[in-house]
Amino acid sequence: MLKINDLHVSYGGIKALRGVSLEVPDGKIVTLIGANGAGKSTLLRTISGLVKAEAGSINFDGTEIMNKSIASICEKGIALVPEGRRVFANLTVEENLRIGAYLRKDKEEIKKDYDWVYELFPRLKERSWQLAGTLSGGEQQMLAVGRALMSRPKIMMMDEPSLGLAPLIVHQIFDIIQEINKAGVTILLIEQNANMALNVADDAYVLETGAIVLHGPGKELLENEVVKEAYLGKKKN
């Protein structure tokens, strides 16, 4: 389980996170929704060690990981699929996937994970020797997810996986998220497409200006009038 307690993060004089507390139980999909600038990406970047926290606690499987090195956090089984995909454009699909497994030494198991990624994303297998920078946006998102899976994570954190993608591709990505979760990978999902995110989430949090303002089952928040008006584009009657 990932457990965050009273987390505070600042950029210069600006408070990006103000006492955030949340839990991501093993085997679940937990989503975090909120407007641009609410602090969602900052939270994922802090968990993964890219941003330093001022105060609070980030506990994963009983171990405190706040402000630990990025490598040690990855080794514990936490993977980040960053916003904007961030694939290595001048490397092939296969080379990008290999980078995802760079901390691993179990060659036979790595081969099995290659096969699993290519099974999840047949299009990547077709383009395994193609440069990542020549892929479509949807294919790059698939590659970013596949690269994270190659680290064999216990929990995969995803930052806006649907951003800039066509609706059909968005549905495919969300189907894959659910399939990965069924295979035993815990998911922490940040997503501006609140409707899709809440539909797949076991549990959900709403973040506003660096603080959690709502929490509940995903399907329950879908019916919440405040959430409907603010994030689902539905006006009150």
Average pLDDT figure: 90
Helix/strand/pairing category: alpha/beta
- Unreliable runs, pLDDT <50, ≥5 residues? none
Strand % is 25-35%
Side by side, the strands of the main sheet go 6-7-8-3-9-10
- How many individual domains? 1
CATH superfamily: P-loop containing nucleotide triphosphate hydrolases
Please provide the count of β strands: 10
Relative helix content: 25-40%
Overall 3D form:
globular
**CATH structural fold name:** Rossmann fold
Question: Number of DSSP helices?
Answer: 10
Q: Could you spell the SSE succession in H and E letters?
A: EEEHEEHEHHHHEHEHEEHH
The separation of the N and C termini measures 40 Å
Main β sheet profile? 6 strands, mixed
What integer value in Å does the Rg equal? 18 Å
At the first level of CATH, what is the class?
Answer: Alpha Beta
CATH architecture: 3-Layer(aba) Sandwich
